[in-house]
Amino acid sequence: MIAIADRETDPWHDAAMAVSLFAVDPPALGGVVLRAPPGPPRDRWLALLRERLPEGGGFQRIPV
């Protein structure tokens, strides 16, 4: 378990919170822009997003 003080400085906590908030009502927020280099943290974040989106929710990658 992460202590409350650690949550304030943990970037993964913020990233996971963004996924959770977006998953509540994706159309109302209009989308998410993820700017991260290729690698495990980005892949982990995208996997979490896919898990939390409603079934049949749209997921589209747009090249830069």
Molecular structure report:
The chain has 64 residues and is mainly alpha-helical. It is 58% helix and 0% strand. It has helices spanning 4-9, 11-24, 26-29, 40-52. Helix 2 (11-24) packs parallel to helix 4. The protein is globular, with a radius of gyration of 13 Å. The model has no long low-confidence stretch (mean pLDDT 82).
**What is the makeup of the main sheet?**
none
Structural class of the helix and strand makeup? mainly alpha
User: Roughly how much helix do the residues carry, as a percent range?
Assistant: 55-70%
Order of helices and strands: HHHH
Beta-strand portion reads under 5%
Form type: globular
Distance from first to last alpha carbon: 37 Å
Average pLDDT across residues? 82
In short:
Helices cover 58% and strands 0% of the residues. The chain has 64 residues and is mainly α.
List the helices and strands and how they pair.
Elements: H1 4-9, H2 11-24, H3 26-29, H4 40-52
Helix pairs in contact: 2-4
